[in-house]
Amino acid sequence: MKLREFALKAFGILLMLAALGFAVSKAPDRSLESLVPRWAPPPSDFVDLDGLLVHYRDQGPSSDPLPIVLIHGTSASLHTWEGWVAELSATRRVISFDLPGFGLTGPNAENDYSDARYVAFVRQLLARLGVGRAILGGNSLGGGIAWQVALADPAHVAGLVLVDAAGFAFEPESLPLGFRIARIPVLREPMRWVLPRRAIEDSVLDVYGDKSRVTAALVDRYYELALREGNRVALMRRMDQLAPGPVERLGEIKVPTLILWGERDRLIPLRWGREFEKGIPGSRLVVFPTLGHVPQEEDPAATLAALRDWLPNVAR
After folding, report:
1. Does residue 184 sit in helix, strand or coil?
2. What is each CA distance from 141 to 10, 37, 120, 245, in whole angstroms?
3. What pTM was computed for the model?
4. Angle between the 216-226 and 32-39 helix axes, to the nearest 10 degrees?
5. Which of 301, 303, 238, 292 is nearest to 270 (CA)?
6. Of 282, 279, 277, 248, which is closest to residue 260 (Cα–Cα)?
């Protein structure tokens, strides 16, 4: 009898702890309107593309004949490029934006987060913004989109900057906690309503090479934008639709290409950076020994120095 009573009490305690954990971690969706004041101050703007309200920034001299277009990675936002944009926009037109399913742009109506759909989205957005030829830069997913746009529309791409870019087989040495949950159907359903901030913090720490660079403000940004209405479900759909890009066609890319890679990247390890260098004729690989998967965010100054050194190779 005593054993049974103990078991019942223990079970009751576990239930209370689970309920407490749920209450603490409960994270309902946040509306776009509630997030705009903090995450979309000027020069942020929004443009309607077939019913999708796209968050973007168009900075620097509008007369620049060759804008630099920057595309973020999975679960990131245009804010990942702020260090670069602050410097580049003094002399160059720089365009950044939130991809569908991430940041403030939110999910698309078709629940289509395939590479092909993202390529079509980028081309449509740039046409809407009046961009002719441009230098495309991208990190992770954004890098994969950038080089596939170069294949789909070579006349409009003057150069490529691939930062820890996606496209080859996805074989991570370490997968951030948030991505792991989003890939497992049974575990990910509660993520629609529950999202501990610690899970986001662990994920950001996992992709940084120097953990000391991860600040509370940085985690806040990733966490709050993950809660944007529809973004959590969009991440699940994106994970379902992951597929290698047409890497067998990399040799068709004829524009100057800079490849930047964090040597401590465990999500898309350096060996894939070397494969891009082999596959794209005349490309240049620069490796940063202490940085991880988002080197442009982790150390804007060092990565921007490499970009500035390379930019004269692209004819304006």
Report:
1. coil
2. 46, 27, 14, 11
3. 0.90
4. 150
5. 292
6. 277
What CA–CA distance (Å, rounded) separates 73 from 86? 19
What three-state secondary structure class fits 159? strand
- Cα 41 off chain centre by: 20
DSSP H/E element including 54: strand 52-59
Distance CA 54, CA 47 (A): 5
Q: How many CB atoms lie within 10 A of CB 205?
A: 15
CA dist 255 and 61 (Å) reads: 24
Q: Are 43 and 56 in contact (CB under 8 A)?
A: no
144 — phi, psi (to 5°)?
A: -60, -40
Contact between 209 and 265 under an 8 Å Cβ cutoff? The reply is: yes
Distance of CA 246 to the CA centre of its chain: 20
Tokens describing residue 180: 């792991």
CA distance 85 to 44: 13
pLDDT value of position 316? 76
Q: What is the pLDDT of residue 1?
A: 39
Model pLDDT, residue 15: 32
Backbone dihedral angles phi then psi of residue 121, each to the nearest 5 degrees: -60, -45
* Single-letter amino acid, residue 228: R
Residue 239 is predicted with a pLDDT of 87
CA distance 316 to 314: 6
Q: What is the mean pLDDT of each run of 10 residues along the chain (316 residues)?
A: 40 32 61 97 96 97 97 97 98 98 95 97 98 97 98 98 96 80 70 82 96 97 96 90 95 98 97 98 98 98 98 88
Half-sphere exposure of 38 (CA within 13 A, CB side): 13
Where b means 16+ CB within 10 Å and e means fewer, 208-246 reads: bbeeebbeeebbebbbbbbbbbbbbbbbbbbbeeeeebe
* Bridge pairing between strands 52-59 and 44-49: antiparallel
